[in-house]
Specification:
The structure is a single chain. This protein is mainly alpha-helical. The chain has helices spanning 2-14, 18-31, 36-53, 58-75. Helix 1 (2-14) runs antiparallel to helix 2 (18-31). The chain is globular and about 35 Å long.
């Protein structure tokens, strides 16, 4: 289920693979939009990608910030 996918996504993120984590999280959130762990992983993976990007691409930076804000709003 969605919770198991979210747990696998957290493992990917912890292994330094934020893109792979996001792929798994998107599947989990499509199945269960409010799955808390998936939202947390999505937020954390987006934050890591934002950090790694160095702010070089404005479109990417704004998109990642938007994703982070969306997750934080959903988490409450």
């Amino acid at each position: 289920g969605a919770a198991k996918l979210a747990a696998r996504a957290r493992q990917r993120l912890d292994a330094g693979q934020p893109l792979e984590a996001l792929h798994l999280v998107e599947i989990a959130l499509n199945a269960a939009p409010g799955e808390r762990t998936a939202l947390e992983v999505k937020r954390d993976a987006s934050a890591l990608l934002l950090e790694q990007s160095g702010g070089q691409n404005l479109s990417e930076t704004m998109w990642l910030r938007s994703e982070i804000a969306e997750c934080e709003a959903a988490l409450g």
